């Protein structure tokens, strides 16, 4: 569960709160954990994440998960499944982990657990008496520890907690009424250009499932002010502001997570490829999008480029502001072509950059975003000539802010904001190679890594996307018993690129080197957790890889101690996760995200039918059961104990997915296990594997009981 919590923190921009609640319910069900342990482990993982300095998550995201998202997940759980006593028990158990909380308090310069229980109190989840009891456990035997907290300090947690009301205020102001008032919009959007305000607002939006709403408001503003005006009504400035903000959002998170698939903004190359470029994982398909940008009026582009080259205004009059952005790619093509032929001087190139930085059109100086699009174009192109131009552009950006110091603060902040976004693309040309990672622990890892991986600014989302270090990160995660955030980040990248074998092969190879029960169990827990990056894809593919990676000649090695028992239980859990997420949920499940569906026979039958269709489509259960060779040619195989544990674990599961697995059991499988070792399966286990309400299965139970009677069990 600690690993699940860290996976949740890394994927909160990809999934909603309801999806996380469903995942917690699934994990609790398949692992048979009590609710107190579930709550404690979720909290433990969230606090532990703050000290995992391999994480690509900025502090704003990690803190927003802990103080904004996790309380809402717990709130939904308490409303449906989790007893209140289990919530309090989990909090008290966390309060006893003083080494972790002391380190958290020191890093945040405040009483972190007090902040957290205060958030729960604001949600009416705990009362004052319960908060006092929790804090008494926290500081029991630690007199004087509160002296280290300064009442005058402003902990970063306050920035997280204040971001949510700020976000709600912005969403309230960005309405249809104020849409017609550019001055009001400018007052609201300009402050987002300076400081870390936008970063915390985006983190709060992701944590509270409002990213789509926030982006939708900005898109509405951008579309409303897209038409250019001959008078200075502020429309160009608002278009530029909204474009820069939307572009930064697309750098933080892929647009597919906050835009509908059919949205035209998703098709725009400067939004579609931004996240991939920032993380240096763009593919050939992304580069090929440049070929589709050649549908333009060549004469018009050449005229604009010639004017920019001479230091003049590139465009005298346009009908829409985005017309300028659409011409950036062909202008970039002209620049690259001129540099390749060595027919443009450094001074002329500087004129072009300046013209794209301070775009004056329709008599109004309105935009600086075209220069950002040029940086993105060069990064997307990625060849040697583009690198040469990018180096010159990077030098120009170093002095661009100082040139603008004589202008208003709003203009300077906007240009600085644009430059910061542009540097994220130019970084791909100068990023250093990854070096082997040193051994790490949860409280001292960051000091060495900080010097190895380049970052642009504190609010950058660096993602170490190369797969070479996956085995190392996995080995260290197994050593400390908790998945490293950097490992989750890499697996997210591999999943987005459909490179599942890259990390699944490392995961399966790791189990070959484990030879202790604790190590095997840790591997099983981490494997289940990593599947929740995208359970509908990862779980079935892990099953398929496991099925193909253990041939008959070597399978017996994994059926005996210490691997046999934990792996048998793991296999049941993995199949249950795969079946649950590869079959469509029932209407009741979609509406309530809890397991009320299992209390209604009609909904249960609907879900069972859907699961059965999914099961037969993948045909994975059949392959598994065919490999259960208990005995062959009169020789007893070691797998009999493995199969016995598998059936025992399957028997105590009563979900619809488990029912499907039970119904697909071969008729002679249980019988062959009993003939091989009648002590492996208890009578109650046999009854649980079948449905006594059906005559055929009731007859099967009686037949198996007769076998037990013959060998003297009864």
TrEMBL record:
Recorded protein name is: Mediator of RNA polymerase II transcription subunit 24
Family, as annotated: Belongs to the Mediator complex subunit 24 family.
Keywords (A to Z) from UniProt: Activator, Nucleus, Transcription, Transcription regulation
Q: Name one GO molecular function term.
A: transcription coregulator activity
- Keyword Nucleus among record annotations: yes
Location(s) in or outside the cell: Nucleus
Pfam families reported for this sequence: Med24_N (PF11277)
PANTHER family from the UniProt entry: MEDIATOR OF RNA POLYMERASE II TRANSCRIPTION SUBUNIT 24
Q: Where do the coiled-coil regions begin and end?
A: none
GO CC annotations on file: mediator complex
Q: Which GO terms describe its biological process?
A: positive regulation of transcription initiation by RNA polymerase II
């Amino acid at each position: 569960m600690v690993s699940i919590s860290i996976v949740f923190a890394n994927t909160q921009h990809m999934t909603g709160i309801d999806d996380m609640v469903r995942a917690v319910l699934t994990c609790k069900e398949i692992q048979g954990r009590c609710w107190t342990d579930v709550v404690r482990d979720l909290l433990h993982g969230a606090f532990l994440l703050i000290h995992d300095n391999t994480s690509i998550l900025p502090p704003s995201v990690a803190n927003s998960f802990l103080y904004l998202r996790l309380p809402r997940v717990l709130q939904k759980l308490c409303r449906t499944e989790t007893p209140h006593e289990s919530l309090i028990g989990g909090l008290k158990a966390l309060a006893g982990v003083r080494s972790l909380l002391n380190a958290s308090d020191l890093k945040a310069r405040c009483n972190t657990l007090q902040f957290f229980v205060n958030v729960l109190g604001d949600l009416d989840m705990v009362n004052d008496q319960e908060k006092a009891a929790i804090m008494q456990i926290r500081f029991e035997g630690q007199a004087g520890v509160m002296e280290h907290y300064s009442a005058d300090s402003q902990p970063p947690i306050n920035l997280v907690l204040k971001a949510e009301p700020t976000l709600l205020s912005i969403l309230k102001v960005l309405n249809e009424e104020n849409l017609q008032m550019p001055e009001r919009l400018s007052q609201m959007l300009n402050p987002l250009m300076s400081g870390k305000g936008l970063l915390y607002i985006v983190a709060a939006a992701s944590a509270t499932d409002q990213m789509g709403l926030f982006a939708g408001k900005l898109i509405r503003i951008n579309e409303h002010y897209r038409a250019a005006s001959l008078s200075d009504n502020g429309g160009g400035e608002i278009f530029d502001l909204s474009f820069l903000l939307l572009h930064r959002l697309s750098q933080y998170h892929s647009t597919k997570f906050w835009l509908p698939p059919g949205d035209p903004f998703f098709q725009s190359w400067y939004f579609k490829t931004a996240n991939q470029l920032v993380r240096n994982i763009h593919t050939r398909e992304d580069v090929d999008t440049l070929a589709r940008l050649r549908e333009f009026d060549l004469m018009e582009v050449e005229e604009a480029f010639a004017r920019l080259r001479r230091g003049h205004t590139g465009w005298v009059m346009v009908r829409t502001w985005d017309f300028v952005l659409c011409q950036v790619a062909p202008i970039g093509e002209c620049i690259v072509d001129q540099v390749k032929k060595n027919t443009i001087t450094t001074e002329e190139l500087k004129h072009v950059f300046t013209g794209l930085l301070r775009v004056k059109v329709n008599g109004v100086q309105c935009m600086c975003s075209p220069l950002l699009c040029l940086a993105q174009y060069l990064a997307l192109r990625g060849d040697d000539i583009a690198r040469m131009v990018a180096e010159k552009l990077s030098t120009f950006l170093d002095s661009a802010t100082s040139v603008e110091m004589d202008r208003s603060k709003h203009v300077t902040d906007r240009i600085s904001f644009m430059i910061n976004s542009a540097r994220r693309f130019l970084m791909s040309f100068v990023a250093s190679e990854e070096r082997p990672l040193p051994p790490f622990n949860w409280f001292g890892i960051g000091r060495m890594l900080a010097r190895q991986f380049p970052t642009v600014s504190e609010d950058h989302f660096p993602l170490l996307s190369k797969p070479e270090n996956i085995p190392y990160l996995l080995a260290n995660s197994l050593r400390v018993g908790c998945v490293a955030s950097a490992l989750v980040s890499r697996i997210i990248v591999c999943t987005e690129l459909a490179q599942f074998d890259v990390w699944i092969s490392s995961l399966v190879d790791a189990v070959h080197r484990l030879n202790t029960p604790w190590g095997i169990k840790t591997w099983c827990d981490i494997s289940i957790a990593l599947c929740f990056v995208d359970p509908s894809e990862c779980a079935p593919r892990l099953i398929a890889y496991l099925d193909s990676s253990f041939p008959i000649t070597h399978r017996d090695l994994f059926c005996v101690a210490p691997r046999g028992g934990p792996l048998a239980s793991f296999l049941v859990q993995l199949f249950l996760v795969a079946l649950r997420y590869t079959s469509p949920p029932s209407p009741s499940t979609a509406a309530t995200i809890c397991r009320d569906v299992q209390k209604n026979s009609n909904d249960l039958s609907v879900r069972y039918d859907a699961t059965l269709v999914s099961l037969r489509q993948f045909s994975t259960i059949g392959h598994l059961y065919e490999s259960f060779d208990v005995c062959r040619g009169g020789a007893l195989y070691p797998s009999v104990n493995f199969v016995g544990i598998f059936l025992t674990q399957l028997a105590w599961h009563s979900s619809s997915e488990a029912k499907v697995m039970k119904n697909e059991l071969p008729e002679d499988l249980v019988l062959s296990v009993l003939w091989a070792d009648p002590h492996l399966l208890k009578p109650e286990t046999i009854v649980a594997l079948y449905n006594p309400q059906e005559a055929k299965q009731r007859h099967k139970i009686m037949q198996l009981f007769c076998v037990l009677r013959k060998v003297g069990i009864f």
